[in-house]
Amino acid sequence: MNKFDALVTSHAGRYGVALCRNEDSEAWLAFHLAHELGHIACGHLNDDGLLVDEQIKNSTATEEQEANDYATKLMGSAGIEPPQLSWKTASVAPRFVAVANDNRILPGHLVLKAAILGDFKCARALLKHIEPAPRARQLINEYSAAELAPLWNYDAEEFISQFFHKTGV
């Protein structure tokens, strides 16, 4: 089975997004989330739909570009030209941070925007300078726990846990 970065689903007028990438970079996960929200906002899902990498590859390039454009607008970088990527990460990182700070956006997002036109390996190296201690998954888990705990159905959790234990799934 191929791995995928994220998915978006809809059922009965409700939407769900799953971030599946084993990633701690705030910039990577924020863009994936914004991209999936773009699919929702642009109406790319049916009433009971699901979009994952394998299906996205088979969808029209227009839908992907629309979702990317939406994500870029949502992330605040529409119309902003990122600095040029360079393997001299220590010298180029301050330029990305300065442009990002001037425009109130994530510096890592500008790095990824530049990577689309350049080199993702170089961008990954640069992100290590810009996000030296990334903790996106931790932030998402903390937020989810705080927001969802009052809504959690502990009886259902126990049932699901017993089901998986008994079936060996």
User: Between the first and last Cα atoms, what is the distance in angstroms?
Assistant: 17 Å
The number of helices is: 8
By secondary-structure content and strand pairing, the structural class works out as mainly alpha
The largest sheet is: 3 strands, antiparallel
- Determine the strand fraction and express it as a percent band: 5-15%
Radius of gyration: 18 Å
Strands ordered across the widest β-sheet: 2-1-3
Oligomeric form of this entry? single chain
Shape: globular
Low-confidence stretches: none
Total beta strand runs:
3
Percent of residues in helices comes to 55-70%
- Mean pLDDT equals 83
Order of helices and strands: EEHEHHHHHHH
Structure description:
The chain is mainly alpha-helical. Helix content is about 60%, strand content about 10%. The chain contains eight helices and three strands, in the order ββαβααααααα. The protein has helices at about 25-40, 55-60, 60-75, 90-105, 105-115, 120-130, 135-150, 155-165, and strands at about 5-10, 15-20, 50. A three-stranded antiparallel β-sheet has the order 2-1-3. A hairpin with a 2-residue loop joins β1 and β2. The longest helix is centred in the first third of the chain and has 16 residues, at about 25-40. The radius of gyration is 18 Å and the shape is globular.
